[in-house]
Amino acid sequence: MWDKLKNDKYVKDLLVKLVTVLFVAAIALLLFDVLTQNKDGRRQIVDMDGGTEYTQAEDIATDEEKRLEQILSQIKGVGDTSVMITYQDNKSTETVFGSEYGNKNHKVEGVIVTCEGAGDIIVKNNIINAVAAVFDIPAANVMVFEKSSIKQ
Fold first, then answer.
1. Which residues cross the membrane (predicted)?
2. Tens of pLDDT along 127-142?
3. What percent of the chain has pLDDT over 90?
């Protein structure tokens, strides 16, 4: 029976038409997706939990970030420093003996440091070790980058 179907011209035409229709449909879906995106190809993510965005570092920097910037800039070879700290929210739950609902404990999840002296591997290593020790986080959660000399 399979041999009969393989040699039948009607079945071959039908198969070619089916494959062509599927191919055109796939291309149409891809084009539809591309055409409905923003100009730069990215989609906007809406933050529904009321979080804040980093728009201007001076206005939003926390006291902890400012203190860390001040301390790190005093290390030999570091220079001008900027710091961003990200936190992991641990919401407490209700217990049998009392209600702790709504209390938030902020634990540092990661730190980004930009400084003038980060091009030196020893300075970079010192910064990573200092930040990891202060916040008791793994060194892999601390990113250090050399600060751009170009002011915007």
1. 14-35
2. 999 999 999 999 999 9
3. 32
- Rg (C-alpha) for the chain, rounded Å, is 28
Question: What pairing do the DSSP bridges indicate for beta strands 81-91 and 142-146?
Answer: unpaired
- CA count, 13 A, side-chain hemisphere, 110: 6
Please, which residues have CB within 8 angstroms of residue 39's CB and are 6 or more apart in sequence?
A: none
Q: The domain that contains 65 carries what CATH number?
A: 3.30.300.30
Name the DSSP letter for residue 148.
P
Supply the range of the domain harboring residue 125: 57-146
Query: In degrees, to the nearest 5, what angle opens at C-alpha 61 toward C-alphas 57 and 66?
Result: 115
Say how far apart CA 144 and CA 128 lie, in whole Å: 7
**DSSP H helical ranges for 1-152:** 2-7, 9-35, 57-60, 63-73, 121-135
